[in-house]
Design a protein that fits this description.
- The protein is an all-alpha fold.
- It contains 16 helices and no strands.
- α14 runs antiparallel to α15.
- The chain starts with 5 loop residues before the first helix and ends in a 10-residue tail after the last helix.
């Protein structure tokens, strides 16, 4: 049995973690950033936060398939390094934006050149071709858990460090949003260096040559140039089950992003605007609690839950809890109007985030394992 290349797996998990950090960095500070830096107010704040949050996903969705095709020819590693370097630069420049369109353009370009969500899955698929099902499920479970926990802890870090000034930098001396972005970009840069030095190319040259060989009928048929063509190829090689799971993954991932954005807006909006009236630091505290609950569930409850109910039922339980927590969080704003005590507000939010955090950790991570199980081992499929 082939030994697990834990160094490569660890670097790929770090890439996935910091890729999620890049995705989440603007979210906790977005309301204050829009009001304080971009000088917008009233209903324009919610619109601006939505545009900034969605710009990354829009750029990523446009380029993901193209980046996947490039990686099939030139390898996974160059595409991964391009995404990491682009993220490092864009994260540093984001807090220096002075207009909404500068901020939106920054996030769009960051998403366009960063296909590492896809590349980490593809690289792990390359590495795990000869593994048994248990090892494959375990590693893809780690990947999903890394994404889930990174969402919360990165948001907590940004929320806590927002407001730290760097007076020795003239261009950022009065910018309370620069430090968390600068510190995050340093972590991304360190991970980029580690990937450049120690991450092997998971798609060897021989495999790349085979993908362009016209005599390889199975590979050359998997060349749909339109969206419908790609979906037809996916159904041909993976069956309708894989196609349904990929569509479900697309909707679930989009809903997760929407829930997180609405969650932050709900926490940051004032009482009069129907929110909880929390500062960026308090939002960071909430996300810290979120991460602790998710980590506790992942360590002590995730395995027994999957063994008891199975993977599919565990996913259903997680999705149900995510919905319940989200609904309770919205309804909790009515209780806030009754009491102006900050401890009461925080208690309501913490209580609602428990089912939400469990739902996050038992939603997409489980769905990723289901997709890995449904994917044929002899065909490389880029799950976006």
């Amino acid at each position: 049995m082939q030994a697990t290349p834990w160094l490569a797996v660890t670097i790929l998990l770090l890439i996935a973690i910091f890729d999620v950090c890049v995705l989440m960095i603007p979210i906790p500070i977005a309301p204050e950033f829009v009001e304080g830096r971009l000088k917008l107010s009233g209903p324009h704040v919610g619109v601006a936060v939505g545009l900034i949050s969605s710009a990354y996903h829009l750029g990523n969705s446009i380029s993901s398939a193209m980046m996947g095709d490039i990686s099939d020819v030139h390898g996974r590693k160059p595409v991964i390094l391009l995404g990491m370097l682009t993220s490092c630069v864009s994260v540093v420049l984001f807090p220096l934006s002075t207009t909404l369109w500068m901020a939106v353009g920054n996030r769009f370009l960051c998403g366009f050149f960063n296909a590492n969500i896809t590349m980490t899955k593809s690289s792990l698929s390359d590495l795990s071709r000869t593994w048994d099902a248990d090892r494959r499920n375990m590693v893809f479970g780690y990947l999903g858990a890394a994404w889930g926990l990174a969402r919360f802890f990165s948001s907590a870090f940004v929320g806590f460090t927002s407001g730290i000034m760097l007076p020795f930098l003239p261009f950022a001396a009065d910018n309370p949003f620069f430090f968390p972005c600068f510190a995050s970009s340093c972590f991304v840069l360190l991970t980029t260096i580690a990937a450049a030095l120690f991450l092997p190319e998971t798609l060897p040259l021989r495999s790349r040559e085979n993908r362009t060989n016209a005599s390889d009928a199975q590979i050359t048929r998997f060349r749909g140039t339109t969206m419908l063509g790609r979906l037809r190829d996916l159904k041909h090689f993976g069956g309708s089950a894989l196609l349904k799971l990929l569509v479900l993954h697309m909707f679930h991932q989009g809903l997760n992003g929407g829930i997180v954005t609405c969650f932050v807006l709900l926490l940051a909006l004032s009482d009069g605007e129907g929110g909880y009236g929390m500062s960026a630091n308090e939002v960071g505290l909430v996300f810290s609690f979120y991460g602790v609950v998710g980590l506790f569930f992942q360590v002590f409850c995730y395995g027994p839950l999957c063994k008891t109910f199975g993977i599919r039922k565990s996913y259903a339980v997680g999705t149900f809890l995510l919905a319940v927590g989200s609904i309770c969080l919205v309804l909790g704003t009515e209780l806030v109007t009754v009491s102006n005590v900050n401890a009461v507000r925080m208690g309501i939010v913490m209580a609602c985030t428990i089912p939400q955090a469990i739902g996050f950790m038992c939603g997409l991570p489980v769905l990723i394992v289901l997709i890995a199980n449904a994917s044929p081992h002899d065909v490389s499929i880029r799950r976006t």
